[in-house]
Specification:
The model is unreliable at 1-51, 306-314 and 413-435 (pLDDT under 50). The chain is elongated and about 125 Å long. It is built from 15 helices and 9 strands. The longest helix has 80 residues, at 196-275. Helix content is 55%, strand content 9%. The protein is of the alpha+beta class. α2 (39-45) packs across α8 (196-275), α3 (55-79) packs antiparallel against α4 (86-106) and α6 runs antiparallel to α7 (160-179). A hairpin with a 5-residue loop joins β8 (452-457) and β9. It has 3 domains: 15-37 and 315-485, Heat Shock Protein 90 (2-Layer Sandwich); 48-233, no CATH class; 234-311, Orthogonal Bundle (Helix Hairpins). The strands form 3 sheets. A 5-stranded mixed β-sheet has the order 4-6-7-9-8, with helices on one face.
Length: 486
């Protein structure tokens, strides 16, 4: 396969959940075993992904523009006594006022505009400004600089296609009023005329200014929104794992409360069994009742140990056993997953959800892209604890390696990832499991535990991901989250 991505398809579940919810393709897409992470959930967690601008915001900006245009118009006409087509200019400004009033009556102030609606809204502002400048000197008018404002607003709130449409309308408007316009209002006693070369320079500066500022604003807004959407997905995944841990606490409480009455039932059933004639139907019923009560007590005993039932026997495990438990979920296929330790005196690490998800994603992706073998190696010194995940696949492609760690970055054939012309997820992932979020989620969660992650291609072939923590971050006296809070 030419090129590859380490952007995994979601979350690595624990060994217990793997056995309890063993579904087809669960090894290749570990997150699909439970709580599928889809676009609708991310959009719900981060509502700013779609409908990013409110009508009130653009209406208020238009009112501000109307106030500025009106003040400038009357100062020039009445204060400076420059002749200009006052009536036609007032009509153009009044049209914007009427449109704002209509929209305020038609829609609620909190109404959010779709990308197409916002594009039409801002395109009108560009054309309205072009009409005013046509009547007052074209690009010779110093206020031609205001063409930049609607395009920058659109670039910060719209996707690339709508931003290009808005920029194209602005370019066309600037070019039109540069060629055809009414004279610039000026004193009757003086004649003002700009040389054609200078007018060409003004046109070029406007076009370049619109292009540069719009590209800058769009790229900045795009990166911000994509990062926020990815973080929302990470928080959603981690919240689900904490919810799972809370279920274990609830099971413990239920086991504690139900243990006493079940013990009483077992004692009474035993006494009835002794009092009733042997081999009688009533004695058999009492025996069955006692056995079922003891069975219930056994189940509650397991529930009373949620760490064993859900996450393992203890809160902490030797590092090798911890890695072996995570890797066990992805064994059994064509790829061998080997665990190697640099020393026998291995530290004990906390079994935090961040580590389970983060390292599980890295091992899962290495198994997906390896040919025959994945090696997970752990080492430690007095100051650093490190884990390396190495596979014998094709390695990272250069374009993926450059963007690795960003949300929605993947090269899985036929799977979904955001393109450069999209601000955030906006549809369904039906049949498209590859969201390009797995590596981003793994990196974010590992960094929350105090770790640092580095990915690169090995000289002999294959890819390697190294994770390093300062000693005590995941093997200290307190869990990683508590250590970071302190």
């Amino acid at each position: 396969m030419p090129g590859r991505s380490k952007a995994a398809n979601g979350l690595a579940a624990t060994g217990f959940l793997h056995k309890a919810m063993n579904q087809p393709n669960s090894r290749r897409y570990p997150w699909s075993r439970f709580w599928p992470l889809n676009t609708s959930e991310i959009v719900s967690a981060f509502p700013g992904i779609r409908g990013r601008v409110r009508l009130r915001t653009l209406s208020n900006l238009r009112w501000l523009a109307i106030a500025g245009q009106s003040a400038t118009l009357f100062i020039v006409y009445f204060g400076l006594n420059y002749h200009l087509p006052l009536f036609r200019c007032v009509v153009v400004i009044a049209t914007s006022m009427a449109l704002n009033i209509f929209l305020a009556i038609r829609y609620e102030p909190s109404h959010r505009l779709t990308s197409r609606e916002a594009t039409v809204y801002l395109a009108y502002d560009v054309l309205q400004l072009a009409a005013l400048l046509f009547l007052t000197g074209g690009i010779e008018n110093p206020f031609a600089l205001m063409f930049i404002a609607p395009v920058v607003i659109g670039a910060a709130t719209l996707d690339l296609s709508n931003t290009l449409i808005l920029a194209g309308i602005s370019f066309a408007s600037v070019s039109l009023i540069a060629a055809v316009h009414e004279p610039l209002p000026w004193s009757a006693s003086d004649r003002f005329h700009l040389p054609p070369l200078y007018q060409g320079g003004i046109w070029a500066s406007l076009v370049i200014g619109i292009g540069f500022t719009s590209i800058y604003a769009w790229r900045t807004a795009s990166e911000t929104v994509r990062m926020q959407a990815g973080l929302a997905a990470t928080q959603l995944a981690l919240a689900r794992e904490h919810r799972l841990a809370a279920l274990g606490a609830l099971a413990t409480a239920a086991a504690h409360e139900l243990g006493t009455p079940l013990g009483t039932i077992a004692v009474v059933a035993r006494e009835l069994e002794r009092a009733l004639p042997a081999n009688s139907p009533e004695s058999e019923d009492a025996k069955l009742l006692r056995q079922e009560a003891e069975r219930c007590r056994g189940i509650l005993t397991q529930l009373a140990r949620p760490q064993e039932t859900v996450l393992g026997a203890t809160d902490r495990l030797p590092l090798g056993a911890f890695l072996d438990e995570i890797a066990e979920q992805y064994r059994g296929g064509d790829v061998e997953i080997a665990i190697a330790l640099d020393d026998e005196n291995e530290p004990k690490v906390w079994r935090a959800p961040e580590l389970l998800h983060g390292l599980g994603n890295l091992i899962a992706n290495a198994a997906d892209f390896a040919r025959t073998r994945v090696r997970v190696r752990a080492g430690w010194t007095d100051s650093v604890l490190s884990i390396s995940v190495v596979d014998d696949g094709d390695g990272f492609s250069p374009e993926i390696l450059e963007r690795l760690g960003e949300p929605y970055t993947t090269s899985r054939p036929g799977n979904f990832a955001l393109g450069d012309n999209e601000l955030g997820p906006s549809g369904s992932f039906t049949g498209r499991e590859g969201m390009g979020l797995g590596f981003f989620i793994a990196k974010t969660l590992i960094e929350q535990t105090g770790g640092r992650l580095e990915a690169f291609n090995r000289d002999g072939g294959g890819a390697e991901v190294d994770v390093r923590w300062p000693r005590g971050a995941i093997d200290g006296d307190a869990p990683p989250g508590a250590a970071l809070e302190d």
